[in-house]
User: Fold this.
Amino acid sequence: MIAFLIKRAANAAFVMLAVALLAFLIFRFFGDPVEMMVNEQATQSDRAELRERLGLNDSFVTQYTRFVGNAVQGDFGMSYRNQQDVMVLIKERFPATFELVLVATILSLIIGIPLGVITAVHRESKLANLLQLGSIVGVSLPSFVVGIMLILAFSVSLGWLPAFGRGDTVQIGWWSTGLLTPSGRRALVLPAISLSTFQITLVMRLVRAEMLETLRADYIKFARARGIPTDRVQWRHALRNCLMPVITLTGMQIGNLIAFALVTETVFQWPGMGLLFIQAVTFVDIPVMAAYLMLVSFIFVALNTLVDITYAWVDPRLRDDAARAGGANG
Amino acid sequence: MLLALIALSALFAPLITPQNPYDLAALELWNSEIPPIWNADGQWPYLLGTDTQGRDILSAILYGSRISLIIGFASVLLALSVGLTLGLIAGYVGGWVDNVIMRIGDVLLSMPFILIAILITAMATASLPSGLKDVLAAPILIFAIAVPSWVQYARTVRASAMVEAKKEYVQAARLIRVKAWRIMLHHILPNCLTPIMVAATLNFGLAILSEATLSFLGVGMPPDQPSLGTLIRIGNQYLFSGLWWIVVFPSIQLCLIVLSVNMIGDWLRDALNPKLR
Assistant:
């Protein structure tokens, strides 16, 4: 088990180093940091001095090592655009994105799981067919289109819910939350729905597939034979055995949701990290872009590794040889 | 069926649309902001109304679909050819070549798809002079969407190439000195085409979606040669002024295209899956 842990951790570390290299390359070769930072009047010697001070004259390897070292400590330098510490900017924006992703994830589970069970249990019914068709539609709907349509319906036509912003927020330490105020909660509704649409269909399809598999198992037939009510067998005995893959999927998708939140955030002008990133892209604010890339990849890789480790912990067969497991899976 | 209809109408867009949306001279400002034809203020020939510059929405949609479909198709083709080549080489040759290729793939998969695409387009546009930017927008997008998606094909092909390479007929072919590329192309590749075809169809839908998303975010096609995503982005600005038709119709078209592609993909998967037959 320990060998497996080390192997997975090393793998994750390698991937993160590669992502860091990519971020560093972007940082180093797109736009000259000195030109971005000095003002118009700076003399040649000012520039040379700044260059020396930033360590841009050092060797490539030294610079890369320093970049990784700083990144580990959460230091990504200054934003070119507003001369603020990048980490401070991201820290400010992180709660908004986190709350959005969290609510969207919860939504996808409480809607997706029951729908998946229903389509699996009443396989031939009209409702199930309709839901199944709905799930294909759900996968095909771009999230920004969903967002725009929601705004059009609930904000522009009906005027029920706000179309942009986060509403009032409450500050708890450095964390700002919109969940505690009525306007904050109202503002969260539409973005959360539009972000979770895709996820709902994903959860639903997975639950359906798993349920169909499980319902065929002997212990389900046995439970029925014992006279346990069908509903109870389906919703408790069968569903419980389908939840592991759902948890895995949810865990792995959180990274994707954070990345996709940038689309939702653009539609709803939600002041999260994604919006910060898109603005950084428009202004070629490279430190912010590099920091965002590193952070999202880190969350992504960390979650994947965690899921792998949990799996190995639950299922010892996956522990012994990664190569064999990989070969067996496909 | 629907997809064929959409593709045909997009293909013959110049023949059936009332105006050329790129031709600025054809735009008349007094024809701007006309609602769709069934509305009391609707005007012939603007079936779906016009935008704030007097551009016919229907024409813009058909031209936009053409751009979206072309970019989607080209990026799948590019990803497919790169993925198949690298996957075959990795699986057949093995050793460190395999290691390097698959590690690059791992790194690409460890970042969200959309993030890679945005970064590539952003970097490309940042480093190009502004004159070239608009001309190269489509190729950049194709490239940006293809980069994160070749890995999937490569993995599939690699897995079956590794299995096939050990089989006797490949060993025999090697013995009689059939060239390596010939073995790969004629003996190994046909064995893994089925899953690849399904993946490619589903990815076609994904590619169109990605292109639309990028354009919507403002890092894709420029407004003077709009794809569906760009049209939606433009329409989004008028969301609150009651000009709903500018944004709604391109959105519907986009959904229809992706939906029909996904349905074909689903159907293909079921039809080609021997377990379900």
Notes: Chain B touches chain A at residues 103, 106-107, 110-115, 118-119, 122-123, 126-127, 159, 205, 209, 212-213, 216-219, 232, 236, 239-240, 242, 244, 247-248, 251, 254-255, 258-259, 261-263, 266 (CB under 8 Å). The mean pLDDT of chain B is 74.
